[in-house]
Amino acid sequence: MAIVHWPVELQHGQVALRPLRAGDGAEWAAARQRNVSWLRPWDATQPPGADDGARTFRAMARDWNRQARYGRMLPFVITYGGAAGAGARAKWPLVGQLTVSGITYGSARWANLGYWVDEQYAGRGIVPTAVALAADHCWFTLGLHRIEVAIRPENKASLRVVDKLGFRYEGERPRFLHIDGDWRDHRIFALNSEEVGPGLVSRLE
């Protein structure tokens, strides 16, 4: 059985990851509302006939943290200390979200990684740093072997993230995920633990 490390906080420079909390609802909702048009083309949606039931943000956060304690996922928010007046890390604003999902142990030892960032903070190197922090934690602390990222071919910003970090392109999966109201093709990128040397944070440096 895997040793569970949750909750956990990670930081490199002015970028930090911390657990999504039930009390983040107002700040999270405000960020999502500001970025409706920016995020809609990449947002996961429910296919016709799916019924997961409506949940409050608080219920979602509690459920995700419960799953994290069982080692099934890592629901992080991205915070940033480079914002004006950010002050101590506890007051850094929420600027995005990063989720490690589908964590599998046994003979597979792999997981998926997905993320979004507030448009006003895009282009500052925040997402590559957040991805590097989470991936290194998965490899070196959780003992996972493979991290996979699925990206729509049209999402040029996300494609730049995996290119910067050296993720290997493995091919296209047709109609792979339900995004923005339909099944969408995705490109798959991955790295195995033996390919990353001292880690992705080191690559950024």
UniProtKB/TrEMBL annotation:
PANTHER family: [RIBOSOMAL PROTEIN US5]-ALANINE N-ACETYLTRANSFERASE (PTHR43792:SF8), GNAT FAMILY, PUTATIVE (AFU_ORTHOLOGUE AFUA_3G00765)-RELATED-RELATED (PTHR43792). The lineage of its organism: Bacteria, Bacillati, Actinomycetota, Actinomycetes, Propionibacteriales. It comes from the Bacteria. Residues 15-194 form the N-acetyltransferase domain. The keyword Chaperone does not apply. This is GNAT family protein. Belongs to the acetyltransferase family. RimJ subfamily. It comes from Kribbella yunnanensis. It holds the Pfam family Acetyltransf_3. The keyword Acyltransferase applies. Keywords: Acyltransferase, Transferase. PROSITE patterns: GNAT.
